[in-house]
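dumping this here before i forget
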Amino acid sequence: MPTLFRFLMTIAVLVGLAYAAMFALVFFVEPKKGEITVRIPAEKLNPPQQ
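structure:
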């Protein structure tokens, strides 16, 4: 039984670390905001008929 308890505690600690990492990303990382322009060639919009 101690082995099962140790395994479950290890899994709980790993899940807690993953949750803490996600929490830190949400609150401390700010996305870059800006306008994006992508040019699409006319050949891709209107392919020639065969």
